C-alpha cells in the first residue's frame, strides 16, 4: 500500500469509526431506554423500529442512486454528517415526544433515524468499498474500524444508561462533529475515478440503468438470499431486553449487555481483518452461504439455550457471521453486476430489502415477544433463515463465470433485453 493509499485508508477508517461511534451512542441500548425511561412495551418499540425501516426503505434507493451519480464527490456524506451532529439533540427530544404521542413520535423517529443511520451507513460503506478498489486496499480492514467505534461507544453506553441517558446523546453529537472535520479534510483528487468516468462530472448513470437491475434473474437470486439474512437486524432490535432479563438485577443486566456488545464488536473487528482472506479463499457465494448458516445457528441457538453465559455465546457468533457477510456481499456484487452501480446494488439489493423485511417483521416480532416469548419467536426466525439458505445454495451464482458474461456492460444488457 503506497502513501496515497494509506491516507485514504486512514481517513475512511476514521470516518467509519466515528459514524459507528455516533450510531452506537444513540442506538446500542435504545430498546432498554425506550422501555425503562420512556415507558414503552415491546409492541410499541416494534412499531418504532418498523417506522425506522420504512423510512430507510425509501431513503436507501435514493441515496444509492445519488451516490452512484456523484461518484467520489462528498455532497451526500456532508448531509449525513450534519444529521449525525444533530442526533444528540434529537434523541433528547425524542423521548418526551413519544410520551406525548407514540404515533407522531414513531414517525419522527423513523424519519430521522432511518435517514441518518440505517440509510446513511450504506452510503459510507459503499463509498469506502469503491475507494478501496480504486486505491488498492481491502475494504474489510477499513470497515474493521467501524466495528471498533461501535464497541467502544457501547462499552460506555451500557454504563451511562444507568446514570443518565443524556450522556450517551452528548457523546453522539461530539462524535458527529469529529466525523464532519475528518470528512472536510478528505480529498478526492483521483482523476478517471471509476472505469473511464472522470471525477467531478456526471457518471452517465440514469434511473433506467438502475431499474435495469430488476430485469436480471441474478439480482432476484440475491434478493432471495438477503430476505433470510436480514432477519439478523430484527433479532438484534430487542435482544438487549431479553439478555437483561437473564439477571435478577436489571441494572446489572443493562451493564453486562454493554460489556457483551462491546466484546462482540471487538471480535467482529478482528473478523473484519480476517474476512477478506477467508472470502478470497472460499469464494463469494460460499462466503454468503457460510454467513447465513452461522446466522441460523445463532438465532435458533438463542431460542434453545438458557442462562446468560450460553445466550452470550450465541450472541458472539455475530462476530463470525457479519464480517464474512459484508465482505462476501460486496465481492459477489462486483463479480456479477456492473461496478458503476455499486452503491445502488448495496443500498437496494441489501440495505433496502433489509428495511422492507424489518418494517414488516419488527411489529410482528414485538408482538411475539409479548405474547409467546423471546425464545419461541427466535425459533421461528431461525427456521426462516434455514429455508432461505437452502434455496440460495441453488439460486446464487458461483464465482466462476463465462468471461463474456462477466464483462457484459449495461449497454449490452439493455440490448439483450430489448431484443
UniProtKB/TrEMBL annotation:
Source species of the chain: Providencia manganoxydans
Keywords: Cell inner membrane, Cell membrane, Membrane, Transmembrane, Transmembrane helix, Transport
UniProt name for this protein: MFS transporter
Principal location: membrane
Domain of life where this protein originates: Bacteria
Membrane topology: Multi-pass membrane protein
Pfam family, one: LacY_symp
InterPro entries: LacY/RafB_perm_fam, MFS_dom, MFS_trans_sf
This protein's record includes keyword Membrane: yes
SUPFAM superfamilies assigned to the protein according to its UniProt record, in alphabetical order: MFS general substrate transporter
Amino acid at each position: 500500500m503506497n502513501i496515497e493509499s494509506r491516507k485514504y485508508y486512514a481517513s475512511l477508517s476514521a470516518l467509519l469509526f466515528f459514524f459507528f461511534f455516533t450510531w452506537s451512542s444513540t442506538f446500542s441500548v435504545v430498546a432498554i431506554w425506550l422501555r425503562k425511561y420512556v415507558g414503552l412495551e415491546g409492541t410499541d418499540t416494534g412499531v418504532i423500529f418498523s417506522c425506522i425501516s420504512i423510512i430507510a426503505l425509501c431513503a436507501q434507493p435514493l441515496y444509492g442512486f445519488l451516490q452512484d451519480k456523484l461518484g467520489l464527490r462528498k455532497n451526500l456524506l456532508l448531509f449525513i454528517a450534519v444529521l449525525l451532529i444533530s442526533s444528540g439533540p434529537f434523541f433528547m427530544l425524542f423521548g418526551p415526544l413519544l410520551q406525548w404521542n407514540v404515533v407522531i413520535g414513531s414517525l419522527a423517529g423513523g424519519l430521522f433515524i432511518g435517514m441518518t443511520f440505517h440509510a446513511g451507513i450504506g452510503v459510507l460503506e459503499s463509498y469506502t468499498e469503491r475507494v478501496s478498489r480504486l486505491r488498492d486496499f481491502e475494504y474489510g480492514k477499513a470497515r474493521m474500524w467501524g466495528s471498533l467505534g461501535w464497541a467502544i461507544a457501547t462499552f460506555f453506553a451500557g454504563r451511562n444508561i444507568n446514570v443518565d441517558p443524556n450522556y450517551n446523546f452528548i457523546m453522539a453529537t461530539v462524535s458527529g462533529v469529529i466525523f464532519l472535520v475528518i470528512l472536510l479534510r478528505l480529498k478526492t483528487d483521483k482523476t478517471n475515478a471509476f472505469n473511464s468516468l472522470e471525477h467531478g462530472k456526471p457518471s452517465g448513470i440514469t434511473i433506467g440503468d438502475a431499474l435495469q437491475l430488476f430485469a436480471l434473474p441474478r439480482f432476484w437470486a440475491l434478493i432471495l438470499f438477503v430476505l433470510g439474512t436480514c432477519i439478523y437486524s430484527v433479532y438484534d432490535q430487542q435482544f438487549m431486553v431479553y439478555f437483561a432479563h437473564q439477571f435478577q438485577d436489571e441494572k446489572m443486566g443493562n451493564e453486562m449487555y454493554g460489556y457483551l456488545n462491546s466484546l462482540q464488536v471487538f471480535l467482529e473487528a478482528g473478523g473484519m481483518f480476517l474476512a477478506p482472506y477467508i472470502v478470497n479463499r472460499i469464494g463469494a457465494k460460499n462466503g454468503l452461504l457460510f454467513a447465513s448458516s452461522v446466522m441460523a445457528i445463532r438465532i435458533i441457538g438463542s431460542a434453545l439455550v438458557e442462562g446468560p453465559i450460553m445466550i452470550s455465546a450465541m450472541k458472539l457468533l455475530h462476530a463470525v457471521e457479519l464480517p464474512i457477510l459484508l465482505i462476501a456481499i460486496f465481492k459477489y456484487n462486483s463479480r456479477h453486476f456492473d461496478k458503476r452501480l455499486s452503491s445502488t446494488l448495496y443500498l437496494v439489493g441489501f440495505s433496502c430489502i433489509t428495511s422492507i423485511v424489518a418494517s414488516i417483521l419488527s411489529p410482528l416480532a414485538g408482538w411475539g415477544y409479548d405474547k409467546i416469548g423471546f425464545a419461541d419467536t427466535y425459533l421461528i426466525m431461525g427456521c426462516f433463515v434455514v429455508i432461505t439458505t437452502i434455496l440460495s445454495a441453488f439460486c446464487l451464482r458461483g464465482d466462476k463465470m463465462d468471461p463474456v458474461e462477466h464483462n457484459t456492460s449495461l449497454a449490452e444488457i439493455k440490448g439483450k433485453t430489448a431484443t
